[in-house]
Amino acid sequence: MADLTYASLNNWLKFKHLVLLETLARTNNMHLAAEQMNLSQPAVSKMLKEIEGLLGFPVFERLPRNMPVTALGEHVIRYAQRVLNDAKHFVEDIEILRLGGHGFLKVGGIFAATAVVIPNSIIEIKKQWPLLSIDVVEQTSDHLMEMLSEHTLDLAIGRFTDVTQSQFFDFQPLGPEPFCIVVNSAHPCAKKINCTLEELLNWPWLLYPKGTPIRERMEGAFARAKVKIPSNTVNTMSMQTFLQILKGAPMVGMLPEAMVIDQVKEGHLQILETDLILDAQDYGILTRKDEPVSDIAAAFINILLKNEKHK
Questions:
Q1: Rounded CA gap, 143 and 135, in Å?
Q2: Which InterPro entries match (predicted)?
């Protein structure tokens, strides 16, 4: 087998091969992949052998019950996902422009950003491009960077959670994300001048799920305050769930100030002063390193930076 070259890849590899790779990686099953692609299983098997023959290594392991991706195959699958997502984005853009629209923008944000920063900037960019179609995804920073890598987002607003991430993404800071302890206005602690942390720990808490970067920072805050993490908790990443439960039940939440400030102003929620402090961490604009953004994405980034400067 000759060595893999750009010319051989360019002359032979087709979109249907990339679709097969992505479908197999998603299903881990030859029969399911064949069904989803509307092909026979022998045809899928033959196509995969041709792909692996061109690459010179197996992309999938052949096990009795499934087909996990090999270590080298992971690189191939990520490439297939990027190309297919770019193609999908291209088709959406062209179709919107053909129908008289102004293109497509896909933005991701952490919860604090989707509460205020992103909506305000969308309002402004829609004044410039009224027919611009915008998708907004709310997720944790780690998931947003995965989506950026897969080219399912044009840009994201989040934060680095690992030092190695700066190798792959550029970061433009927008500002700190302060957190607060909050209860509803009918909560017994809302009526006290000083509600101790020990008292608050007797109530059920709303927290982010275990394993998320924010939860890890929360656990650090409890450790610094020398108290145990509450055992009576509801764990969610849904901002809407957070706010609805907080407004309707005597619970305690630790949330970004941006998420609750309007509810506080309206008198539904109240911020408490406690010894539990979660250090503010800068969030900002994340884009793929060494890859230019579209004109529309660049305009949106400029609006984000301008709005933060004028705060």
A1: 16
A2: HTH-type_LysR_regulators, LysR_HTH_N, LysR_subst-bd, WH-like_DNA-bd_sf, WH_DNA-bd_sf
Based on the fold, state whether residues 153 and 185 are members of the same structural domain: no
The rounded Cα 237 to chain-centroid distance in angstroms is 12
- Enter the pTM of the model: 0.65
Pick from 30, 50, 55: nearest CA to 41: 30
By residue range, what is the domain housing residue 26? 6-70
Burial (CB < 10 A; 0-12, 13-18, 19+), residue 96, is middle
- Same domain for 41 and 116, yes or no, is no
Q: Are residues 166 and 195 in the same domain?
A: no
Residues 154 and 286 reside in one and the same domain: yes
At residue 115, does pLDDT exceed 80? no
> For the chain, how many structural domains are there in total?
3
Contacts of 191 (CB under 8 A, 6+ apart): none
Summarised one tens digit per residue, pLDDT across range 283-295 is 999 999 999 999 9
Give pLDDT, residue 179.
Answer: 84
